[in-house]
């Protein structure tokens, strides 16, 4: 009996001690909630400050606050609209029966308060990458909420692109790129340069100030050489690891059709005569197909076509066509483009060179959806309302091309570019020496004209199989 009474006494004292501990903890939490004390995560609030000088750009990008709920606050989950899970803080506030009242705080007018900026930098980032990130600080915090940008394909030699009164904060130079960060009264500018081109971006406290500073930075900076009659502007599309889909332009030399007509055999020249004289009113199909053996002058014909059509059509060459039709975003950037007043009504010709895998008969199996997207661009929903033509060159024979590519009505022109006959080749070269009975391609004729023999491969032996080793 005495043992049981002693045990009961111990249990009673333990229960009383537990109650006192809970009451003490509740009192501490209540005092912290009343005082507005917040518990901060140990890994939060890592801030980087310069050793001297003002913190002009990067504090907002380098400091991230990750705070846990205040003491005395519990996280309560509730179901939002359309099944979205949302969280709210429920605080104990003075009221009848001590009910918990939801704290419906309003979002700050500054978006940065709702979405802090976090910058992670490791040894894979270059100084230019850091400069790019630091530039976003004042724009992200809302200190300079307006931005204007410009792209210059060819920068004049000696142009710094710095606005008057600019103070350089950071400058980084890589092998093929440089980045300069500068500031002025109420504005910040980032100048990214590569080869001959540059991107200039300005953030400022007002839209008018951003536009004015950008104009001062780029005024007279573009290198505009004197136009040459034999030159034509051609665009080149590619996906850049740094900037994604990107277009650059350059001047290329192209002869007139009368100057190069003798480079093609008679049936090809007759078909090209009609193609060179095409106008927007003559366009029926949207696909231009040039096929034939290598060295017959398909690319040269396209350069001349760009010169013949330059009054109404902009010619762009896609340097990575295999990626174009496998990347929907890349395709949309090129096909849709941007509507600006300068190019309204102007046609575009996209050139895809050596696309054998894309349009041969087994393309649906080897290239997946690439062929379907190509055809959709020419006469499907994607191409509707867009003045876009697609020019494709291939070394494949006509019999090996996919039937959907060569069906009637789809092609604006379908021209097989073959070698010149023996008579045509002799007339072109001025001598019979080196010209075979089957004639010669344009590349072979140029090699003979330079005094070098055309490079040829030995004929394969009967029964010899080519093998691939993995």
TrEMBL record:
Residues 92-113, 451-470 are annotated as: Disordered. It comes from the Bacteria. SUPFAM superfamilies: P-loop containing nucleoside triphosphate hydrolases (SSF52540). Pfam families: AAA, DUF5925. InterPro entries: AAA+_ATPase (IPR003593), ATPase_AAA_core (IPR003959), DUF5925 (IPR045969), Mitochondrial_chaperone_BCS1 (IPR050747), P-loop_NTPase (IPR027417). Residues 284-421 form the AAA+ ATPase domain. GO terms for molecular function: ATP binding; ATP hydrolysis activity. Belongs to the AAA ATPase family. BCS1 subfamily. This is Putative ATPase. It comes from Streptomyces viridochromogenes Tue57. The lineage of its organism: Bacteria, Bacillati, Actinomycetota, Actinomycetes, Kitasatosporales.
């Amino acid at each position: 009996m005495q043992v049981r009474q002693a045990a009961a006494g111990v249990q009673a004292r333990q229960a009383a001690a537990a109650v006192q501990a809970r009451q003490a903890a509740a009192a501490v939490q209540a005092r912290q909630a009343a005082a507005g004390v917040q518990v901060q995560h140990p890994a939060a609030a890592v801030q980087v400050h310069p050793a001297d000088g003002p913190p002009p750009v990067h504090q907002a990008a380098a400091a991230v606050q990750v705070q846990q709920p205040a003491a005395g606050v519990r996280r309560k989950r509730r179901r939002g609209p359309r099944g979205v899970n949302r969280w709210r803080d429920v605080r104990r506030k003075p009221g009848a029966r001590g009910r918990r009242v939801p704290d419906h705080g309003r979002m700050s007018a500054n978006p940065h308060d709702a979405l802090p900026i976090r910058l992670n930098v490791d040894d894979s980032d270059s100084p230019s990458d850091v400069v790019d990130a630091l530039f976003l600080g004042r724009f992200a915090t809302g200190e300079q909420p307006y931005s204007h940008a410009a792209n210059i394909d060819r920068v004049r030699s000696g142009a710094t692109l710095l606005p008057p009164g600019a103070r350089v904060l950071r400058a980084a130079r890589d092998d093929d790129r440089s980045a300069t960060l500068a500031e002025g009264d109420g504005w910040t500018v980032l100048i990214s340069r590569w080869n001959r081109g540059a991107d200039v971006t300005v953030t400022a406290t007002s839209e008018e100030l951003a536009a004015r500073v950008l104009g001062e930075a780029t005024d007279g900076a573009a290198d505009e050489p004197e136009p040459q009659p034999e030159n034509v502007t051609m665009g080149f599309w590619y996906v850049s690891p740094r900037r994604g889909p990107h277009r650059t332009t350059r001047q290329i030399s192209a002869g007139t059709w009368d100057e190069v007509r003798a480079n093609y055999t008679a049936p090809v020249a007759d078909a090209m005569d009609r193609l060179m004289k095409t106008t927007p009113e003559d366009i029926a199909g949207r696909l231009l197909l040039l096929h034939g053996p290598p060295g017959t002058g398909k690319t040269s014909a396209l350069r001349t076509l760009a010169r013949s059509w330059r009054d109404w059509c902009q010619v762009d060459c896609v340097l990575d066509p295999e990626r174009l039709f496998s990347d929907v975003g890349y395709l949309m950037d090129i096909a849709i483009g941007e509507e600006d007043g300068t190019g309204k009504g102007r046609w575009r010709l996209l050139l895809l060179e050596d696309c054998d895998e894309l349009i041969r008969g087994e393309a649906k199996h080897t290239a997946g959806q690439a062929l379907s997207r190509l055809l959709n661009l020419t006469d499907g929903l994607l191409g509707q309302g867009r003045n876009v033509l697609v020019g494709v060159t291939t070394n494949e024979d006509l019999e090996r091309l996919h039937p959907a590519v060569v069906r009637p009505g789809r092609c604006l022109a379908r021209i097989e570019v073959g070698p010149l006959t023996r008579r045509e080749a002799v007339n072109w070269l001025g001598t019979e020496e080196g010209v075979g009975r089957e004639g010669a391609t344009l590349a072979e004729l140029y090699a003979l004209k330079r005094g070098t023999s055309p490079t040829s491969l030995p004929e394969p032996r009967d029964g010899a199989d080519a093998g691939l080793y993995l």
